[in-house]
Design a protein that fits this description.
10 helices; 446 residues; alpha+beta; six-stranded mixed β-sheet; single chain
């Protein structure tokens, strides 16, 4: 599970912390019998299942989600000349410092997670050309046990990684050859390359990497294609040994959300190959294209999603799903990613989760993470939003709401609702937020 992320010098952020710790003191009376999670149970830390981030336009909410995205890409692809090939293909830069401060030479991410009852802290500091510092520790701050640490392209701690068969000289050679450029500067993360190439060497490295790679999903603009959402859910169900198909599960939830859809249908059309061996995909400009293309051995199939509505004679009329409203299409893609996390556990981060969604649908989606009936695998959700109806809906607790503010001196900062005095879970959050009591609102004047 995710505990926190410290972010320093990224876009509008000078330094701030995203935290999902439960900060309300003792547990609520009878919390084990409540239908919603007060916090997620684990041996190391009490963590909330949901974190809503509110703030004014241009306050930096999206930059918080983008920081997680940059961290993910740095982990996988590195920085400097290691990342250049991806920039040419339109990738978002991983080094994107705050240009309004003079001391912006390096960016720093520090993420804390809980795995198997232990706390792990992974930190990485980097510039445009190199990784200056990378480390992985196990334990709390007062009992921090280094697994590995690299400073200025030199191994500092490595005893937990080295072994009788893989000695210090082998690790240093791995760092020089696999993680560094021709000038000897580290430009790829040790965690990723060691965890993918030698996962048996250290179980903790392999487990931490697997969490970041397989248990975290990030959507920068809440435009999750229907096909991607369904594929994510399909993979999650398969890994959990579930017999229910992703399509059936999504259809069941979609009809419950009252989009006026009677039922859904998926059609798989085999694609033919041309003389050059390329698959030919026919797209009707009025109907739209498929939601995805699925390969099965040497064959390929286009997947078309259809929705059925009743006409004035109560007869079913079939529509290509691309003709549904933008809100319905967004909800379908979002639900795929969310149901996938709820099936296997993990962290979902979505910018503008409320975009094009009705307030009540938005609330129901958030509530799936706080509801014990749906969230059985300690899944977590972090999202930004402008829709304040959620603050009045008695869905979120004071540990589950953040407010973002931005000033020239401090950049984008986060303050949790639980930190304000005289705020309890029975408080009318929305009214007090819109009155400016918690900041994080615009002051428009026309």
């Amino acid at each position: 599970m995710f505990i926190s992320m410290k972010i320093r010098n990224f876009r509008s952020i000078i330094e701030t912390m995203v935290s999902m710790t439960y900060e309300e003191g003792k547990a609520p009376n009878g919390y084990k019998d409540l239908p919603r999670w007060a916090f997620l149970e684990n041996k190391a830390e009490r963590l909330v299942p949901c974190l809503a981030i509110y703030g004014a336009n241009a306050g930096g909410k999206s930059n918080i989600i983008k920081a997680f995205f940059a961290f993910d890409h740095l982990l996988k692809f590195g920085t400097g000349d290691a990342f250049e090939p991806f920039l040419k293909n339109g990738a978002v830069p991983v080094f994107d410092p705050n240009l309004l401060i003079s001391d912006n030479e390096t960016t720093y991410f520090e993420s804390k997670i809980v795995l198997n009852g232990s706390i792990f802290t992974y930190g990485v500091e980097y510039s445009e050309k190199k990784i200056a510092h990378e480390f992985l520790n196990e334990g709390r701050e007062d009992d921090n046990r280094p697994i590995f640490e690299i400073k200025d392209s030199e191994l500092v701690h490595f005893s937990k990684v080295s072994s009788a068969t893989y000695k210090e000289k082998d690790l240093k050679e791995f760092l020089r050859v696999e993680c560094s450029n021709k000038d000897g500067l580290q430009n790829r993360t040790f965690l990723y390359l060691m965890g993918t190439k030698y996962p048996a060497l250290n179980k903790n490295i392999a487990d931490v990497l697997e969490f970041f790679l397989k248990s975290v999903f990030i959507s920068l603009n809440n435009q999750i294609p229907a096909g991607l959402g369904m594929k994510m859910l399909e993979d999650a169900l398969k890994n959990q040994g579930q017999k229910e198909t992703a399509f059936d599960k999504l259809q069941k939830i979609t009809t419950k959300l009252d989009f006026g859809i009677e039922r859904l249908e998926i059609d798989r059309t085999k694609l033919e190959q041309d003389a050059a061996g390329e698959y030919q995909l026919q797209i009707n400009p009025l109907e739209g294209g498929p939601i995805g293309v699925r390969r099965a051995g040497p064959e390929a199939f286009a997947e078309y999603l259809y929705s059925y509505h009743k006409n004035d004679e109560q007869k079913e009329v079939r529509f290509n799903f691309n003709r549904e409203s933008m809100g319905t299409q967004i909800a379908f893609g979002v639900l795929g990613s969310i149901l996938a996390a709820l099936e296997k556990g993990g962290l979902v981060l979505i910018d503008e989760l409320d975009r094009s969604l009705h307030s009540l649908v938005f609330q129901q989606i958030v509530q799936m993470f706080t509801n014990k009936r749906y969230n059985t695998q300690n899944a977590q959700l972090i999202f930004t939003a402008h829709n304040t109806d959620l603050l009045d809906a008695d869905i979120l607790r004071i540990s589950e709401i953040d407010f973002v503010n931005k000033t020239k001196k401090k950049g984008t900062t986060i303050q949790r609702l639980v930190e304000f005095s005289d705020v309890r879970n029975v408080t009318n959050f929305r009214k007090r937020y819109l009155s400016g009591e918690f900041d994080g609102i615009p002051f428009p004047y026309l």
